[in-house]
Task: structure prediction
Amino acid sequence: MVLFQCDYTEGAHPKVLERLVATNMEQWSGYGEDDYCRSAADKIRKACGNESLAVHFLVGGTQTNMTVIDAALRSHQGVLCASTGHINVHETGAVESCGHKVLPLPSGDGKITAKQVEEAYLGHINDEAHEHIVQPKMVYISNPTELGTIYSKAELKALYEVCNKYGLYLFLDGARLGYGLVAPDNDLTLQDIAENTDVFYIGGTKVGALFGEAVVMRNESLKADFRYIMKQKGGMLAKGRLLGVQFDALFTDNLYFDISAHAVNLAERLRAAFEQKGYEFVAPNRTNQIFVKVPDAHLEKLKGEFGYSYDHRVDETHSVVRFCTSWSTLESNVDALIGAIEGLK
Amino acid sequence: MVLFQCDYTEGAHPKVLERLVATNMEQWSGYGEDDYCRSAADKIRKACGNESLAVHFLVGGTQTNMTVIDAALRSHQGVLCASTGHINVHETGAVESCGHKVLPLPSGDGKITAKQVEEAYLGHINDEAHEHIVQPKMVYISNPTELGTIYSKAELKALYEVCNKYGLYLFLDGARLGYGLVAPDNDLTLQDIAENTDVFYIGGTKVGALFGEAVVMRNESLKADFRYIMKQKGGMLAKGRLLGVQFDALFTDNLYFDISAHAVNLAERLRAAFEQKGYEFVAPNRTNQIFVKVPDAHLEKLKGEFGYSYDHRVDETHSVVRFCTSWSTLESNVDALIGAIEGLK
Amino acid sequence: MVLFQCDYTEGAHPKVLERLVATNMEQWSGYGEDDYCRSAADKIRKACGNESLAVHFLVGGTQTNMTVIDAALRSHQGVLCASTGHINVHETGAVESCGHKVLPLPSGDGKITAKQVEEAYLGHINDEAHEHIVQPKMVYISNPTELGTIYSKAELKALYEVCNKYGLYLFLDGARLGYGLVAPDNDLTLQDIAENTDVFYIGGTKVGALFGEAVVMRNESLKADFRYIMKQKGGMLAKGRLLGVQFDALFTDNLYFDISAHAVNLAERLRAAFEQKGYEFVAPNRTNQIFVKVPDAHLEKLKGEFGYSYDHRVDETHSVVRFCTSWSTLESNVDALIGAIEGLK
Amino acid sequence: MVLFQCDYTEGAHPKVLERLVATNMEQWSGYGEDDYCRSAADKIRKACGNESLAVHFLVGGTQTNMTVIDAALRSHQGVLCASTGHINVHETGAVESCGHKVLPLPSGDGKITAKQVEEAYLGHINDEAHEHIVQPKMVYISNPTELGTIYSKAELKALYEVCNKYGLYLFLDGARLGYGLVAPDNDLTLQDIAENTDVFYIGGTKVGALFGEAVVMRNESLKADFRYIMKQKGGMLAKGRLLGVQFDALFTDNLYFDISAHAVNLAERLRAAFEQKGYEFVAPNRTNQIFVKVPDAHLEKLKGEFGYSYDHRVDETHSVVRFCTSWSTLESNVDALIGAIEGLK
Result:
């Protein structure tokens, strides 16, 4: 059985693992105050083209989202996001458990627009009873989104402009950031993202690390005391050096981007095979996730051999499922899947 | 200027106030442990036809909603409600501030159905990733709803049946309960409500009291330690006797229902005048709230003399506004408003 | 049975009640946006000698404490207070329910000192692991304290100086403020308090009102969006005018202070009788609360006729109990209690 | 510079790391639903002598404490612990951030007694105002404690008996469990702990793993929906297999206990050298932590070469510091430290 259901089925990229092994018996202070964390942070700042960025390392995505959002918001403030946003649907209410309402905006493709944000903000502030309503104070977007789509540079700039206009924080969840930055149709750089958000993170868990997310903060008002809140939310790893070592490896010799490109190239091949077969895509994109409408009869034949993730039923005979590639996907497995698809009748 | 914008523009019904004045210098223990609270609770139990109900008095609606919901739910559990539900839109995230996600269901008329609840529950439990999603554990409904509509006995019974089937609590917000129970098209009694919910409350603030909501609990598992949580949420009034005295008065000689009928009768007259004028109703109902689509030109002429509450813009020349009557509405003011409407051109 | 167990056994002072009755059928907008709230706030600002103060009205003390504290603190910040502080012991964890740790400092008399605050702050900041420890950000004091003692002007100034030095908020709980300000040994004015705190409140519940606490804020950074948080915590009374009317009456013709003096004068008489009898005082003070060590044999004789509040056992034959006077205490009842005490053998 | 300041300065035990490397490219489902997690849980159940235990894997200690405690308590309930308890002092208020008050009991040696728990419980329940006070519902202990001391079998049984008598949960934090179980003066087995607690955890972070804590639950009422709450608190690792692989290795061939014994043996040698030098111990114990009172002049000479953790100042010329050993401590480093100490004048 070959798993295509998600992008975290293997451990770490060999070069990352190698560094963990090589440094295993070194002695370091805990909680991220070691040379590897310092070095990794420096490399990330350099890659982002801004030496004054604050960089912190956390373990996982839900933890990162709740920590950043709780650090930013006061009690009565909420966070706008796409209705499909990870914080809205797949984190068991982590944001609400910190006391904050998630304010979903309708979205078909996982993205939201500057116009939607502006309307939501103005709708709030112009409501006579606005003190009775949660105040929007942050905008959460994912890039790539939960549906694999990406923001263009123009879209991100427009969002950030609206956020600045109304005093909202813009937070970009980059759990799969690598796969977005190397997509053939992407025009955003890491620098663009650092310049057009208040805070974002670079996902390691899904892009080559055993685990780990690197939070990058540009907005000064978010920087204060962030480590206290990391600790409070259970996100300050005792052996913080594990995160430093991994991100240091990922940001050495372009590794983060090269392994992302591997995943995207294989996804392109899969996508072509699906297209050839006449399957339709949901939220078409060119990153590592493919949401595709497949006859149930075909799924039945694939399911013993290939793992995919079931999304939803379309009609009596069709379903939408997700296939993912990742840095660890073997070309031979993609060949096998393409072969199997071509052979379906 | 005559205010029709809401149903809490005056103080208390004279008979309620009279009792407060008469008992003012009596000495009583605090926190609801006085004879008036005991007596009021007994009268409410009797009116509900069930002597084993637990009755608690709180000060206001938001406080009551957050206290009941927080008392019932564990961290990972959420509460289903209509998208228009008061807890979803007009409590500044009070439920989320207690750590719980509000799970809105689409609703055009303020109501939700047993079928919607069942689908939401099954959708959750059948999702492979259900542990990553907030677990629905309570259903919150309002009767009358925020749009003035009411549940029929059959609808409430169907909801409660589904809740029981899946282990969900059913909680009915009765901030305007009186106005629903006396509506011409209502077929629910107080006893029906007590039998077909796990917990509900009888609103005093909008129905004759200075303030106060009487929580009525039938489900044993909700009763334990409720007073601790009342205190924690700031809802245990030091001079609890004020709540006891008021509810005792309201549940003496049918007062609660008689004054509700007064409001509903006046609303019927207003509604007839609006209909006569050709205005259309949003979520038609026969309780004390009227949501009506009015030409902006007409509003312009009314607004110096009559207070209403602005709801939303329909098109370039029309808006939806709300007119409310209450126990305190003067017939002469209704006459004046009707006259003004008839005179509009 | 005459109750001396607390200072909220009766309703409202007749002059306050009279105003509620007189204004009962007036129509006003809700949520504190009425002329009475505006007038009361103006009178309070004037009494405090500062026109730029923000004044908000809430219903009860626990609610006020949790709302002010939650409005002020970020997630990782806590509030220093005496170990006997109301927020630490008698609010069922309301502050913790908002996510904040209460940081108790040892106190024998209900008070804390500038030196204790400074040591706590420096102890925190100088701890290598301070990011793993809740950060002190606010100091909560009560005046009078839970034991009836009061702060001198010099003590309050010293506390505020330390708070300013280290960026801590100083919050004074004035649930019984009137009884402190008129104590024979008091040297603090309302103006002094307004000048030497960031936020404080003037208690109504225990000093002449049916209920209500008036929050007074001087620190600009606390003012923003406070009404949102009042609403979220269930503290924004629908008929806010009830609070405005009451505080307007209390701050007319010196009423608040005159009725406080009534209570303190009677407490002085009781205290003299206790002293005469040879009883010892816990945390000696000259406000309206008397904590006194009494032989159990005496308590046994008093308890059918006079209500007191049991505090704790001292030894096998003595207990500490509390007697309170208030604005509503009848001189004749005090005479009776003194007579009973004198007659004890 | 050789670090003795804590027990998490290195990575993982070579046998643990080896297994991570060997399984790195295997494909597994996420979130702990893999064969390694299942196998590790089985081995732990077997070691605990109870096949019906629930076993869950989390990443770190603070996260584990907050997740377990939040899963167990309702809003108004708190957790009793030693004043030195990790949750009380070193988790930046994580428990309070979930809404629960930590209820500290005085402790000189890091332990609390059954008698203290009973008194605290009875003190609460017998207080007339108990509804105004946080309700004790859980007892948190650490074994070894934060001071390195351990509970005897009799002490643990007495605690559990009191907990059962009053309906309290007993939760044992085993972040350093291995070092306690192999202490020369220990009489507790893993089975004893499993039988005499409702829930406990086996620490991996400090005992051979890169990270990871294994929660073991016996009480049925704690088991329900625990994974939801793990996810909500950010504690459900995407690549859960990393935890399974590590604990599987630790519970193979007695590894967990053997490497614990290594640490304790070296601590015994250090302790003997300290004693020889005339240093006094704080909270004497025979586990891997040594709290020792040292002349500042000596510390001055050690500090360039040996890392220790500064605890507190005793007097003008003495301080208490902590030296730790761990599974990874090199005998040669211990020799060097002993030599240095012997050479101090």
